Amino acid sequence: MTLPNVESPNYFLWQPVCHRFGSTVRCSFDVTSAEFRGINKGDARLFTGFLAAMDVCVGKLESWTVRRFVSPYHAYDPEEDDWRSLFGLAWRIDLMITDVSRYRAHGKAAAYPGAGLDPTWVDGHDCVAGDEENCVIIATEGPARDFSFLAESHVGGELELIEYGYSHATVLQARLDLGTVNLPRAAESVRELLHQAKIRFMTTDSSQTALRSAWQKPAEWTIVA
After folding, report:
1. Distance from C-alpha of 117 to C-alpha of 43, rounded to nearest angstrom
2. What percentage of the chain carries pLDDT values higher than 90?
3. How big, in percent rounded to 5, are the helix, strand and coil portions of the chain?
4. Is 31:93 a contact under the CB 8 Å cutoff?
5. Residue 105 in contact with residue 15, Cβ under 8 Å?
6. Do 156 and 177 form a contact (C-beta atoms < 8 A)?
7. CA distance readout (Å), 5 to 2, 22, 118, 173
8. What's the mean pLDDT in 5-21?
9. In terms of Cα–Cα distance, which of 174, 102, 82, 166 is closest to 137?
């Protein structure tokens, strides 16, 4: 089957961050789709196009992983009472890139438009959050950097901290992976986590992030000798 070329954006690519491990760079970012077209396994053409759209790493795409999750950070309206409005569907992409000539430590905070098709995606796949999903809470620092309330609230959850070095300051973001949860039953505790983040003036959804003009400049290039 020959896939059609897609020229208009049908994905959004969020907050790429690159880490160097010797001669290899790992680039991680979130992907959402307003068109309810998801990502299954993906392929080199799709992810090479994403890299070009974000302009964060120049090299050879060696391998990748795709992980589906839901998060209030990517929800259309997390303030709605219905639990279905609390969890936006997304995919966490990790790309391993070799023969790197240059890379950025991170991209901008707002979404990059991305165009492409995943040939492993089959129409009819569930692209709407189900009752059981992997859930990730994402919060960006406020006046304080203390994210201990996240780890303490969900013992056993995996807490990842990511630094973004903008021109005015270094900004810290926390990603708390709750694992697979029953979303209707978890909604109340998730809302409480969001409340605790908000009273600390943390940013907990992507629409707020896009309004932070100081976060919209990517890092400078790092040249690999």
Report:
1. 9
2. 72
3. 20, 40, 40
4. yes
5. no
6. no
7. 9, 35, 11, 35
8. 86
9. 174
